[in-house]
Amino acid sequence: LSRHGRQQRDAASESERDYTLRLFLSDSVCELLVEDRAGGPVTHITHQDPAPPSNLPALLTAAICRLPPEIEDRIGNVEVFVDDPEISVVDSRQAKLTHFEGRALSEYGKYQLGGKPISFASHVYGQTSAQEAEKRIVGYISEERLSMVLFALGKLAKFTTFYGPWSLQSSLRDQQGDPEARLALHSHFSTLTIANGSAGAVAVRHLPIGTSTLVSAYSEEHGLSFAEASAALQSRARLDLSPDKPMEAHAPAAHVGSYLALSPILTRLKEEISATTDYFEFQRLAGRASRLSVHVTGDAIAGLGNWLAALLQMEVEAPASRD
């Protein structure tokens, strides 16, 4: 009778799992959005730890532990959106793939990741004529990395139905129109995505520059703690850059501490973005984005949008928080 009672309770518990958890994860922040069957919000939890070094499993576990048990017990579907430098994304034209059966994708992914066991997925992307092979985006991640994240989900791991790149989702939704560029500034790295949905072309690069790179440089230059430097950069813009009048090397402002700390990093970021934009236009022949959308998951940096607009000489949508 006791065993039968437990079985009945377990069955009832599983039947009540009518919530969906959408999980947004980067190197310094984990957001949990729980919705009911009708798509209504149940709870929204944000756990953030911007200080280096980053620890993805610990960040995820800490966020999951904040879920109330009565809500966690009703979650029956988990979708994981993650920006991770260990995720590789290519389009089928770039990879010269025309067949998308599992063996072909697996072999290609193993080659790209140095022979490691991999997990992969593909998604139809781009307009295809009757004479062309189907266009797709293909993503890869090592099995070890995927398992590490799923293990951190604990008992919710078995309900996972989606695992994919966070920054790529808006490009997948919008497959019409002109090329678009998006920059996701995380704490310890950035993800640059340039996509042309009509051409089925995408370039995704993980750049070794994040908001913590700027904070650390500022803290070293001024002798501040990481937290103090973060607060200073958040309080007001520490550089005055103009798209119409580039700062000259002999200008007095070019020799102050803030400029000496931040300018080299911003210049590196500008060069990485410009190189990828040129590659997308001239080597992939997929057009040039006229605007850069920025969202920030790491430390807030006042004036960042204006700095990028001045350096890149293009329209920059003001940095937005996670959305």
List the helices and strands and how they pair.
Elements (H helix, E strand, L loop, with lengths): L1 H14 L3 E7 L3 E7 L5 E8 L7 H9 L4 H4 L2 E8 L5 E4 H4 L6 H11 L5 E7 L11 E7 H10 L7 E6 L3 H5 L6 E6 L4 E7 L4 E7 L3 H12 L3 H10 L21 H27 L7 E6 L7 H9 L2 E6 L3
Parallel strand pairs: 1-4, 4-8, 9-12, 12-13
Antiparallel strand pairs: 1-2, 2-3, 5-7, 6-7, 9-10, 10-11
Question: Which descriptors apply to this entry?
Answer:
single chain; about 25% strand; alpha/beta; 11 helices
Protein model, in words:
The chain is α/β, with parallel strands linked by helices and 323 residues long. The protein contains 11 helices and 13 strands. It has helices spanning 2-15, 56-64, 69-72, 92-95, 102-112, 143-152, 169-173, 211-222, 226-235, 257-283, 304-312, and strands spanning 19-25, 29-35, 41-48, 75-82, 88-91, 118-124, 136-142, 160-165, 180-185, 190-196, 201-207, 291-296, 315-320. The strands form 3 sheets. It has a 5-stranded mixed sheet with strand order 3-2-1-4-8, covered by helices on one side. A 5-stranded mixed sheet has the order 11-10-9-12-13. Helix 11 (304-312) links the parallel strand 12 (291-296) and strand 13. Helix 10 crosses helix 11. The chain starts with a helix and ends with a strand. Residues 251-255 have low confidence and may be disordered.
